[in-house]
Amino acid sequence: MSDPVPPHPHHQDYPRAVAPNVPPRRHLEGQTALVTGASSGIGRAVAVCLGQAGANVAVNYSSKEDAALEVVKEIESSGSHAFAVKADVSKEEDVLSMFDAVRAEFGTLDILVNNAGLQVDSPFIDMTLAQWQKVIDVNLTGQFLCAREAVREFKKRGVRPEISCAAGKIICMSSVHEVIPWAGHVNYASSKGGVMLMMKSIAQEVAPWRIRVNSIAPGAIRTPINTAAWDTPEHYAALMKLVPYKRIGEPVDIGRAAVWLASDDSDYVHGITLFVDGGMTLYPGFETGG
Ligand code: NAD
């Protein structure tokens, strides 16, 4: 991204919140990545950062083809190859054909970023089965389906030492809500708690095949999923009570973490959740002594 972080209207005290892009190291050259839900927000930033680091990227989207094609254009402007692939990650047949499309375009896959996710909020007492199921289907089952196909591909192909120390890398987009309970969002917190133990269990099982599996747990990141948390100065100030570092996260904060987790720089990092949250998991209510 040429200008990764436009100034945030409410970052009054932190006009220079995020470090500017330095000329990217193209240390993922020769690798191919699939990022789900990559037409907006965190997925978009992850796809662009992976592309800037030299990876060729499949940009998955579920409905907004135009937005996905813009991401493709941005990646191609950094010198990497990209293409857009439509799939609903909660549907097995869509996921299978998405992996076929990735193999047809790139030959194989090295990096999966399981990013697609959504919220369908409701007080618990009124939550319908459909609201519960929708979130579990996309946020948990979608990650299961994509991870399974990635493991099948990685195991079949094995390690290519000239490309990477690992046969493949999976990064699951979790959330601080894999550990922080969230009233009014029981379906979402349950899906992310599920992602945590799914990730760790897969990691334990596939490690002998040199497949690395980790999660990123973002805190509050400025994307369309949580506009209501940052769209006015009042909302932003309320949000900052939960963030010891006193700024909202930007999608590029997550993109940079994903590049590290996907690269051989983190080769001995396996089965962890990397919290990228400005300290949101530090019990900020105790900042003043409790
Ligand atoms: P976003 O709404 O911009 O992105 C979510 C993406 O997932 C969208 O592009 C959407 O089209 C896609 N998607 C939804 N359902 C899909 C489906 N069935 N198949 C394929 N794609 C689908 O929001 P975001 O904040 O960028 O969220 C990305 C991930 O980060 C999610 O897993 C979310 O839970 C997680 N996360 C976000 C935050 C935050 O503060 N923004 C915090 C913690 C975790």
Write out the distinct hetero groups bound to the structure: nicotinamide-adenine-dinucleotide
Gyration radius, in Å:
18 Å
Main sheet characteristics? 7 strands, parallel
Find the CATH superfamily: NAD(P)-binding Rossmann-like Domain
The tally of structural domains comes to: 1
Backbone shape:
globular
| Overall CATH architecture | 3-Layer(aba) Sandwich
Number of strands: 7
Structure description:
- InterPro entries: KR_dom, NAD(P)-bd_dom_sf, Sc_DH/Rdtase_CS, SDR_fam.
- Residues 1-24 are annotated as: Disordered.
- By secondary structure, this protein is of the alpha/beta class.
- It has helices spanning 41-52, 65-77, 92-106, 129-157, 186-206, 233-240, 251-262; strands at 32-35, 56-61, 82-86, 111-114, 168-173, 211-218, 273-276.
- It has a 7-stranded parallel sheet with strand order 3-2-1-4-5-6-7, with helices on both faces.
- It has one domain: Rossmann fold.
- Helix 1 packs parallel to helix 2, helix 3 runs parallel beside helix 4 (129-157) and helix 4 runs parallel beside helix 5.
- The protein has 7 helices and 7 strands.
- It is globular.
- The structure holds nicotinamide-adenine-dinucleotide.
Quick recap:
The chain has 290 residues and is of the alpha/beta class.
List strands and helices in order, with pairings:
Layout: E1 32-35, H1 41-52, E2 56-61, H2 65-77, E3 82-86, H3 92-106, E4 111-114, H4 129-157, E5 168-173, H5 186-206, E6 211-218, H6 233-240, H7 251-262, E7 273-276
Parallel strand pairs: 1-2, 1-4, 2-3, 4-5, 5-6, 6-7
Helix pairs in contact: 1-2, 1-7, 3-4, 4-5
Bound molecules: nicotinamide-adenine-dinucleotide.
The site of nicotinamide-adenine-dinucleotide (NAD) has 26 residues, from helix 1 and helix 4.
